[in-house]
Amino acid sequence: MATSPAVLEVERKFTYKSDVEDVLQALGATLQGQLLFRDTYYDTVDLRLTLCDHWLRNRQGSWELKLPFSPHESGRSSNPVTQYQELTQEKEIIAAVGELLGCMPLSEGMEALVAELGLQAFASYVTDRRSYVMPREGLHVDLDEADFGFAVGEVEKVVATAEEVPEALERINHFCVQLGVTGVKKVPGKMTTYLLQYRPEHYQKLKEAHVL
């Protein structure tokens, strides 16, 4: 069975005001829809995945693994734009997790892999998302409100190759200026905020590992 290639996510998070949707529409953005979903994240007991900036997530039954764009790329940069590779095919996820953990999983499905490796859920929350698209720029904008009282926006462009990343960065930063997002400091995302609030020891370990 054919598998789809991994993609690269180039994204920038931002805080937004109550009039953000009016601004988006004035810039030509189109509302794609609104979605309510639960994300549950998994790691080993000793946190070997997240300490290497690998984020294994189950969203409403669909699995995804986000990992650094390159061995030298991680969440520790102060650059407001981040780059991650995204794996969505279970075989690719299992292979990547096995390689990172130094083992050869026998499992053929993600639920079996979780049991085999003793992975445990360390975060789970519900997000109310309103999604916009900027067709001309090829950008997606998500406005998220999490059930633990945190809201954040994200501008994203998905590319297929590393050669496309510089142009994606330029488009995202230009759009953020139009949106009124001019700061250069990285905005914390939902996961960073969740860990700080509910799993401070995990958060501190990630800080010490320069992941956050």
From TrEMBL:
It catalyses: thiamine triphosphate + H2O = thiamine diphosphate + phosphate + H(+). Its EC number is 3.6.1.28. Gene3D superfamilies: Hypothetical Protein Pfu-838710-001. Substrate binds at residues 13, 57, 59, 66, 129, 154, 190. It is an enzyme of class 3 (hydrolase). One of its GO terms (cellular component) is cytoplasm. Keywords: Acetylation, Cytoplasm, Hydrolase, Magnesium, Metal-binding. SUPFAM superfamilies: CYTH-like phosphatases. Its cofactor is Mg(2+). It is found in: Cytoplasm. It comes from the Eukaryota. InterPro entries: CYTH-like_dom_sf, CYTH_domain, THTPA, ThTPase_euk. Pfam families: CYTH. Mg(2+) binds at residues 9, 11, 142, 154, 156. Residues 7-198 form the CYTH domain. Binds 1 Mg(2+) ion per subunit. Its main location: cytoplasm. Monomer. Belongs to the ThTPase family. Hydrolase highly specific for thiamine triphosphate (ThTP). This is Thiamine-triphosphatase. It comes from Microcaecilia unicolor. The gene is LOC115474853.
